[in-house]
Specification:
This protein is an alpha/beta fold. It is built from ten helices and 14 strands.
């Protein structure tokens, strides 16, 4: 099976995706899209492609493309994905898959109507060490607390402080700390425990209108009766440790997007090392899963389900509403 891909976007994350995808013999890169044709041509020097585009409609109509990886600004995801799916293209879309729940509903309806696959490209849930965390949570008794952080000083923050309107802190592109990196521990929490009954938040809002850092408190009343605390920041750095606390012990990991290390620490003092070796390019696992879905002619991932994406997105919307962070997509 040969899956002919196009990529939308020529950023660092696209390079990482291509390096991961090329580890699978089913993948081939056919086309590159960028808003500037010169950028697509320049990108093709490192990742050769048969065609380059600066017109999305022409890319969508290209009969030599089977699937598209979308890594454009968040505000563009839904519109671009729907256009591609209406033309029979499968879509692997970077997180967040959409800006609003309404957008996601339209995307899912389009995937169903045109019988194509749509999956949110959230890598964490496919990692061997995340699966270790899932299993370990069954060994620590009644679950009580979840804490995780993703705080990473942005290389673009100094430019923002100098007055540059960088994508990372741009309201027009539906960006900010929560949707950029806070989504990783949030996705982990909701993947493990489901949609919370309540979400409360606080943030440090920048003058551009997006959040620079913040915290979220999720509460679960029935199934788990636990609380989840999530911290995120693009204006400071942290250790980025996560843990699930149960009445018999706790599961601890390092980095809620990469899951570099995992262990159980029981109340008795006993520790169990659970870390498994992982592919250096963590995106390889989600790529393989997506290719498997296409080989099986499956519309929806059983792991990054549409419902999981919806639960995460609804929580993001709730938090943004509390902080009065309004994106242009909210007004459409």
């Amino acid at each position: 099976m040969n899956i002919r891909f196009a990529v939308i976007g020529t950023s660092k994350i696209t390079r990482q995706f291509l390096a991961a995808a090329m580890q699978d013999e089913r993948f081939s890169l056919h086309a590159i899209y960028s808003r500037k044709l010169s950028s697509a041509i320049e990108f093709s020097q490192d990742f050769p492609a048969l065609e380059v585009f600066d017109d999305l409609t022409l890319l969508a109509e290209c009969e030599n493309v089977d699937a598209v990886y979308i890594a454009s600004p968040n505000s563009c995801h839904a519109k671009q994905a729907i256009l591609m799916m209406k033309n029979g293209k499968h879509v692997l879309c970077e997180k967040p898959v959409a800006v609003t729940s309404e957008e996601l509903n339209l995307m899912v309806a389009t995937a169903k109507k045109y019988n194509v696959c749509l999956m949110e490209a959230m890598l964490s849930t496919f990692l061997p060490n995340f699966l270790q965390v899932q299993k370990a949570c069954t060994q620590i008794g009644v679950l009580r607390k979840f804490t995780a952080s993703f705080c990473q000083y942005s290389s673009r923050y100094p430019k923002y402080l100098k007055g540059e309107n960088t994508n990372t802190f741009n309201l027009e592109f539906a960006n900010g700390s929560l949707v950029d990196i806070g989504i990783y521990p949030l996705y982990v929490a909701i993947s493990l425990f489901g949609k919370p009954d309540n979400a409360q938040s606080q943030c440090n809002k920048l003058s551009s209108g997006v959040d620079g850092c913040g915290d979220i408190l999720l509460s679960y009343k029935d199934a788990f009766q636990l609380q989840a605390v999530i911290s995120h920041s693009k204006v400071s750095s942290g250790e980025n440790i996560g843990e699930v606390q149960g009445e018999l012990g706790r599961v601890v990991w390092h980095h809620s997007s990469l899951f570099n290390e995992v262990k159980i620490i029981f109340n008795t003092g006993e520790e169990q090392e659970l870390t498994l070796p992982q592919n250096e390019n963590r995106m390889a696992y989600e790529c393989r899963h997506f290719f498997d879905l296409l080989a099986q002619n499956t519309n929806e991932s059983p792991i990054n389900t549409w419902q999981l994406s919806a639960d995460v997105l609804k929580t993001l919307e709730s938090v943004r509403k509390q902080q009065n962070i309004i994106y242009p997509n909210d007004l459409l």
